[in-house]
Amino acid sequence: MEPELHSGDIVVVDPAVKLRNGQIALVRNGKEVTVKKIVLHDNMIILQPFNHRYEPVVITVENSEVIVIGPIVRVIRDMK
User: Fold this and answer.
1) Which pLDDT belongs to residue 36?
2) C-alpha radius of gyration, the chain, whole number
């Protein structure tokens, strides 16, 4: 089951928590900040989008603009 994030949700990120394969994390790619599933594979990280219209982003050493800020540990949603 994929997590559901909706417009207006607040995500809580803990950079001190060690990132594990398959976790959902907040990622900065240049000026863009996004939420992606992190897939660790050999010597690269794959940023897997939840929207299937988008392609995964593969991070290697050469792709230095990408920074994994930290795993998402909680989602806060207004139930209005």
Assistant:
1) 92
2) 13
- Which pair of structure tokens corresponds to residue 30? 């240049």
Classify domain 10-76 by CATH architecture: Ribbon (2.10)
15-29 residue pLDDT tens: 999 989 999 999 998
CA distance 25 to 30: 16
Q: Hey, where are the domains in the chain? A: 10-76
Rounded to whole angstroms, what are the CA distances from 38 to 24, 35, 59, 77? 6, 9, 10, 23
3-state secondary structure 22-63: CCEEEEEECCEEEEEEEEEECCEEEEECCCCCCCCEEECCCC
Tokens 């806060």, residue located: 76
